[in-house]
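My main concern about presentation is that the manuscript never shows what a single data entry looks like. In essence, backbone conformation is discretised, so a fold becomes a row of integers matching the chain in length. An entry of this sort, consisting of the sequence and the corresponding backbone structure tokens, reads as follows:
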Amino acid sequence: MLRISHYSKTYPGGKQAVQDLNLHVKPGEIFGFIGHNGAGKTTTLRSVAGILDFEEGTITIDGHDILREPLAAKKVTAFLPDNPDLYPFMTGISYLNFIADLYDIPGEARTAGIGRYGEAFGLTGDLGSSIGSYSHGMRQKLALISALIRSPRLLILDEPFVGLDPVAAHRLKEFLGELCEAGGAVFFSTHVLEVAEKLCHSIAIIRDGRLVKAGPTREVVGDSSLEEVFLELEGEDHG
């Protein structure tokens, strides 16, 4: 579903954010991308989503090269950044219909999707209000709904559980599972290591732009916990 091969990203001024990254996210897989602040997670996610350009390596989504076939790759992808840019002057429902128009979602499918996810996240009663009046958690829910109604093949999430109440977080986990059961895949970063350990089929840990450990979650964690593995790797860096 997602293949990252020898990807590197250097910003103007010479700062290398990611170096020679290789990852493979398979269909039906929830893949966790873990690392400290500044490790290169968001840079990688933004490149996978086609928002950030890069010069080294290749990224393919469902067989489409993100640089050579950007429209085909983005058509099967939904990306939710850690701080989604929404339009405060729009109502929630007008924003969702705007997204549905962009992705050519038919009327019946969009109505069903908005109804289902709006109800699940407890946002239906607020969709007629302006986004500018929404709390952070409500905005996060609206952004999630806008991603889920597209039924993406690859869902890319940057810290998706931040701002969600326990019920909404539980619903999101259910929907991620459904997406994978339908043959899609999820690639997401999080600082909530307990969630990643329980939810993810595979884990990759990045440190200072380099991949330091990756594989099936059980193999990465072993007889320890993801938190202990992460702290041990961080200790090696500072030892």
About this structure: The first helix runs from residue 41 to 48. The mean pLDDT is 93. DSSP finds nine helices and ten strands in the chain. Residues 84-151 form one domain.
